[in-house]
Amino acid sequence: MEKKVRLQGKHQKSDYFCSMIEDKNPQRTDLEQLGEFGLIEHLTKNFDVKHTSTIKGIGDDAAVLNHNKKHIVVTTDMLVENIHFDLSYVPLKHLGYKAVVVNLSDVYAMNANATQITVSIAVSNRFPLEALEALYAGIETAAKIYNVDIVGGDTTSSTTGLIISVTAIGEVSEEDVVYRSGAKPNDLLVVTGDIGAAYMGLQVLEREKEVFKVNPQNQPDLELYTYIIERQLKPEARKDIVALLKQLDVKPTSMIDISDGVSSEVIHLCKHSDVGVEIYESKIPLDPQVISTCEEFNIDSTTIALNGGEDYELLMTIDQNDFPKIKGNPNLTVIGYITEKNRGMHLITRGEQAIPIIAKGWNALKNEE
Amino acid sequence: MEKKVRLQGKHQKSDYFCSMIEDKNPQRTDLEQLGEFGLIEHLTKNFDVKHTSTIKGIGDDAAVLNHNKKHIVVTTDMLVENIHFDLSYVPLKHLGYKAVVVNLSDVYAMNANATQITVSIAVSNRFPLEALEALYAGIETAAKIYNVDIVGGDTTSSTTGLIISVTAIGEVSEEDVVYRSGAKPNDLLVVTGDIGAAYMGLQVLEREKEVFKVNPQNQPDLELYTYIIERQLKPEARKDIVALLKQLDVKPTSMIDISDGVSSEVIHLCKHSDVGVEIYESKIPLDPQVISTCEEFNIDSTTIALNGGEDYELLMTIDQNDFPKIKGNPNLTVIGYITEKNRGMHLITRGEQAIPIIAKGWNALKNEE
Predict the structure, then answer these.
(1) Best residue in B40, B43, B66, B76 for a mutation probing chain A (most A CBs within 10 Å)
(2) Is A64:B110 a contact under the CB 8 Å cutoff?
(3) Domain(s) of CATH 3.30.1330.10: residues in chain B
């Protein structure tokens, strides 16, 4: 008897395609009924303050924060409909969650703790209130899970699509902050988790969208792709790594988050640190679903791992002396090492060929139609 | 002989209508030629760091700031094409300037000093590089004039229009911060500058746009409206008032910036402070150009002053004991006083009628087409 793979609740395939399937939501409240202030009040009424550093959150001209003697880090990202997400297969709740997570990832890449966010949204009135409630539910869930206060934002109209702009604030002691610029020759290049999954998840979703266009009755079968689809639709930021590094007493010499792909990010690290790098193809951590899906799509998995993007893992360099502290940790994989700048930046293939690393990463400005 | 009013360089009428007139800019560099990182580097290369609190600006996963023991304030606003601005008469340089100013205004409304901003932009490829350069020139000019560091941001595509999202950060001592919630009965209600001009400037620009549609050769004559048009296109934030209040040794009991109109803002103050208010129609400060343009458009100037919006002046309440300190100051006009909550919120007309104050302010969510 064929073994049936059971999906967890949150992996139900219909969830991912809810936008396609549930287009005709019977409950539909027009945004105009509430007005701007009413809408903001409605959407933010559950936001509570958890951090003592949040003196005043939503409800004044500006939030007031007190991080005492700590440094603060500030980062911002904008997600634009049909550039960064496609609502035909991205559930709004997941989108809200992801919009927060991609910003927190940048905070963690500074070795800082995320404490506050602001969320601005521009939305056309083709979205009913219930859609915005779903979006904010995702934002609120992420804020709860990552323990950040939502301290401000802006809600306004757009003439067409949905735009989400999040600013994240974190705190870090002066001695703990990690920049892109501290890598030095002989440091180990370390990546967290596994990479390439988010990109392959996107490929599957794009394929199913095409199938759906031809036959809307056909329920997509996504059982083989649950991990990679979740990595695309609902990525997590590596808050745990900041805590783990502290626990292991390891301060990376440099760190960056992987939003555009390992190639692109390692080039940033090397450029800012004035060094070269060698990455070993055989060391790159890949999930089995990435490997099997790459085979199915007839794509080279190393190319995907290096250029896929949207993994929101952390890429860091660590002093060789710290190697015993990270050795064997399942969250941290050594994939190469830093060299003198004049050695260049290379991928060492399984066949021991040295191939120059170039950034083919996802480029927001080339995705335009 | 008729006296000719000379316009300053920045008031040249053709300036305001440059988008209409100079549509066919001979220099046109496609954004795709640069790519995302090239574009950001190109646009931000002149941004220098002025504040010691800016430890690290643009160029890492996040900016790193150190405000030492001071509180920080954080505020964010999004400007969306065809909702908040119309590029047929808003020059991009002024738009960039205004996008910064509207955020700084919120910082000053906390009685704080603005120190840093982040700027995120989503733009469709119908904009050439030169258009973005003009936009960033305005952003940079505002940053210079208001002495704030540009420490981060995001630049991405949009499928249609232009969206600008700015986050502003300021610092303030714990004892100096002013909220919306501190007004108490008998406090004086004080407004800075004059009000209603930005709204009337918009009416003139909208009218000229309609004229231009019918006859594109007709150069609009804007000499009578230079002040109100400048208030609309290139507003200033009241950084000087934060300094002035310190110099006068006056700490307002509450304060808010006037972005949606005095009616709407005074309701916020009263609601947060649990008080009532009386505003005297005869005390409302109006520029002569506002009065004459209101007459020309056959609109009641008091209605415009109370509901116009976009003035970016400050509305505050001051303890009666501080009145001698502000008396006669041309920047500060007493327009009413705070009452017990049960007295309600009223406008006292020139005919001594008490009319309930209701918010008719500009509502972003009703402006949608």
Answers:
(1) B76
(2) yes
(3) 11-172
> Is the pLDDT confidence value at B27 over 80?
no
pLDDT in tens, B56-91: 888 888 888 988 889 999 999 999 999 999 998 899
From the list B336, B240, B247, B55, the residue with the least C-alpha distance to A74 is B55
Put simply, the answer to whether B272 touches A116 (Cβ < 8 Å) is no
Name the architecture of domain A188-364: Alpha-Beta Complex (3.90)
CA atoms of A88 and B235, how far apart (whole Å): 40
Q: Who contacts B227 (Cβ-Cβ below 8 Å, separation ≥6)?
A: B197, B287, B289
Cα end-to-end distance, chain B, whole Å:
48
Question: Within chain B, what is the greatest distance between any pair of CA atoms?
Answer: 65
Residue of A167, A175, A238, A312 to mutate for B, most B C-beta atoms under 10 A: A167
Per-residue pLDDT tens over the stretch A223-254: 899 999 999 999 999 999 999 999 999 999 99
What pLDDT score was predicted for residue B37? Answer: 66
Q: Which residue of B has its CA nearest to A369?
A: B159
Q: Which of B62, B74, B83 sits opposite A106 (nearest CB)?
A: B62
Inspect the interface and report whether the beta carbons of B78 and A257 lie closer than 8 Å. Answer: no
Higher per-residue confidence, A249 vs A213: A249
For residue A110, the chain B residues in CB contact (below 8 A) are: 60-62, 64
Contact (CB, 8 A) for A117 and A100? yes
Contacts of B177 in chain A (CB under 8 A): 55, 64
Q: Model confidence over B259-279: pLDDT tens digits?
A: 989 999 999 999 999 999 999
Domain with CATH 3.90.650.10 in chain A: 188-364
Residue with tokens 């705190």: A171
Check if B60 contacts A (Cβ < 8 Å): yes
Q: What is the pLDDT of residues A319-361, one digit of tens each?
A: 999 999 999 999 999 999 999 999 999 999 999 999 999 876 5
What fold is seen in the domain B188-362?
Answer: Phosphoribosyl-aminoimidazole Synthetase; Chain A, domain 2 (3.90.650)
**Which of B214, B232, B213 has the alpha carbon at shortest distance from B222?**
B232
Please tell me if residue A168 touches chain B, with a CB cutoff of 8 Å.
yes
Beta bridge partners of A116: A149, A169
Statement: A12-172 belongs to CATH 3.30.1330.10: yes
| Residue B185, pLDDT above cutoff 50 | yes
C-alpha–C-alpha distance, residues A276 and A183, integer Å = 9
CATH superfamily entry for domain B11-172: PurM-like, N-terminal domain (3.30.1330.10)
Q: Distance (Å, rounded) from C-alpha A252 to C-alpha B124?
A: 38
Provide the 3-class DSSP secondary structure of residue B346.
Answer: strand
CB contact under 8 Å between B272 and A60, yes or no, is yes
- By C-alpha distance, the chain B residue nearest A58 is B75
Task: Flag whether pLDDT at A123 surpasses 50.
Answer: yes
B74 and chain A: CB distance < 8 Å anywhere? yes
In the stretch 197-256 of chain B, residues with CB closer than 8 A to chain A read 255-256
CB A56 within 8 A of CB B71: no
Among B113, B215, B229, B257, which residue's Cα sits nearest to residue B172? B113
**pLDDT greater than 80 at residue B230:** yes
Write the pLDDT tens digit of every residue in A47-86.
788 888 898 888 888 888 988 889 999 999 999 999 999 9
Question: What is the pairing mode between strands B345-348 and B276-280?
Answer: parallel
Contact B368 A159 (CB under 8 A): yes
pLDDT of residue A36: 67
3 state DSSP class of A346: strand
pLDDT at B36: 67
The complex's ipTM works out to 0.86
B82 touches chain A (CB under 8 A): yes
- CA atoms of A119 and A137, how far apart (whole Å): 13
